[in-house]
Amino acid sequence: MLIDIEQALRDISLGDLIGRLRGQIRALVANAGRWGDGQHIVDAPDAAWDNVSQAGAEVTDLIDRDWAFWNDLAKDNLKKLKGVDSLEDLTKSDVNVIDLHMALNAKFLLNPNERSELKKMRPIDLVALRKPKHLLINIGANHGLIDVTLRGLEADPKPDEGLRRLAAWPAEMRRLAEMLVELGPETETIHINTVPLPSTVPNQSPLYRPGFIDPGKLEKVDGYFPVYDNRIGGTGDYTQYSAAKMKQLDRDVRKINNQMIAEVKAVFDAAGDTRAKFFRLDKALKRYDGKHEDERTIYEGDAGVRLERTNRGYSNRAIDFKNSILFDDFAEGGLGSLDNHHPSGLGYSVLTRELLREMKKSIPDIKLNRAMISEQGDRMLLDEPVEFTKLISILYTVRRQKKGFHEVPDFDEANGGDLPPKQRVKRLGAKDADVARFGEMIGRLLRTGLD
C-alpha cells in the first residue's frame, strides 16, 4: 500500500543508495496521497470484503474502531506528510508512519468507496453483514509476539511490551468471543488460530553461518540451539536469546495459547454454542520445524509436496541467498518471506494444508486432494532478489557492531561460550553509512508492516 518492500529490495543499488532511498520515500508519499484522496475507490466493494484483513490489527481494532476513526487518523497524518522528500524530512516530521499505514489500509478495507452509511463500520460488523458460512480468525501476533521475535524485547523487557503484552491477549479474545456468539446461524463454524512459538519464527536464528559454522556441531540444550539472534531488525535492535530463555518463551506462549482457548471456549459454552474451533498454529508449525530438526525440512518426494526446484530443501530457517552467478542462488529458509516473519507463498501453502486438515474435522465436505505444498508462483523463491543478501549482510554487521559484538559470530559464541569482548564500533565509511541509513529505513518499514 505505502511501499512494495520486496520490489524496494530488488531495486537496491549499493552504488546509489541515497538516490534509491529518496526514490522510495517519494513513492511512499505519492502512494499515501493516492490512497488518502480516494483514487483507489472501487466500484464493486463486495469483492474486497471476502478477506477482512487489516494490517497490524489487534483485537480492539476488530471490535472497537470504525471507518470514521481510521479516516480521521489518516487525514491527520497525511497533512503532516506534505513536503516530505527524504528520510531526513520524514524523521523530522510528526508523521507516524505506522498509524498512517494502518489507517489507510483500514479505511479502504472497511468502506472502499466511502459510502456515508458505512462510516461506523467495524471489522466485526463486516462479518455480521457478510454472514460467512465458515469464519477464520487469525489475530494475536501483534499483541507483543512481534516485539519478541523482531525486536528481541524479552532480552531487555519492559512492562508493557513483549510477552507481558501478549499475556493480556486472552482477555481481549474473550471480548471478541462475546460478539462472535451473536452471529447468526448462517455462520456454521468459527475457526480461531493460536499464535506460533517464538523458536519457530524464522527471524530467531541460531548463530551459524552456512559454509562456515555447521549447525549440526552446535551443542543443543533440550532441543534448543545455544544462542539465537534476531537476524533482521532495525540498526539498534540487535539482541540474543540463550537456549534457556528461548525454551521459557516457548513455554510461556503455549500457556498463553491455552489461556486464550479457555477464555473463548468459556463464552461459547455459556451460550450453548458449539461453533468455536481452534487451529493450533503453534503445533502445526512445529511439524515443519526444519530449523531444529533436519528431518522436518520439506523436500520434493515428500507426501503432498510438489516443488519446482526439486534440488532444494525448504525450512523455517532465516531466508538466505548465495551471491553466485554459477550456482542456484537459494541457500536456506523458504517458509518465511523476506522479513522472516510473514509466510512466503510456500509457507502459506503449508499453513493452508494444515488448516484444511483441521477444518475437515468439522466440515466433512472439504477436499484435501488439492492441498499441495509448492512454491509455484512464489516470485521471491523462484526469482531471488540476490541484492537483498548483500544489504542484510552489511546491516547485520552494523547491528552487531553497534551492540559491541564482533562483525560476525565465531563458533565459540555460536556454541554458547563467553560472548566476545565489547569492542569499539569502527568508524563507518561513506558507503557503509549509506547502507546503514537504507537499512534503518527498511527496518522501520518492516516494523510498520509487522507491528
Question: In percent, how helical is the residue content?
Answer: 40-55%
Question: Strand share of the residues?
Answer: 5-15%
Placed side by side, the strands forming the largest sheet appear as 1-2-6
Low-confidence runs (pLDDT<50, min 5 residues)? 44-49, 421-431, 447-451
Number of helices: 17
Q: In this structure, how is the largest beta sheet organized?
A: 3 strands, parallel
Order of helices and strands: HHHHHHHEHHHEEEEHEHEEEEHHHHH
Q: Choose one word for the global shape.
A: globular
From the alpha carbons, calculate the radius of gyration and give it in angstroms: 22 Å
Topology, please?
Blueprint: H1 5-10, H2 17-36, H3 59-63, H4 67-81, H5 87-92, H6 97-110, H7 123-130, E1 134-137, H8 141-149, H9 163-166, H10 169-180, E2 189-193, E3 204-206, E4 227-230, E5 240-242, H11 243-270, E6 276-279, H12 281-286, E7 298-299, E8 313-314, E9 320-321, E10 330-332, H13 345-359, H14 379-382, H15 387-402, H16 411-414, H17 430-450
Parallel strand pairs: 1-2, 2-6
Antiparallel strand pairs: 3-4, 4-5, 7-8, 9-10
Helix pairs in contact: 2-4, 4-6, 6-17, 10-11, 15-17
Overview of the structural elements:
The chain is mainly alpha-helical. It folds into two domains: 1-130, no CATH class; 132-450, no CATH class. Helix content is 43%, strand content 7%. It is built from 17 helices and ten strands. The chain has helices spanning 5-10, 17-36, 59-63, 67-81, 87-92, 97-110, 123-130, 141-149, 163-166, 169-180, 243-270, 281-286, 345-359, 379-382, 387-402, 411-414, 430-450, and strands at residues 134-137, 189-193, 204-206, 227-230, 240-242, 276-279, 298-299, 313-314, 320-321, 330-332. α4 crosses α6 (97-110) and α15 crosses α17 (430-450). The chain is globular, with a radius of gyration of 22 Å.
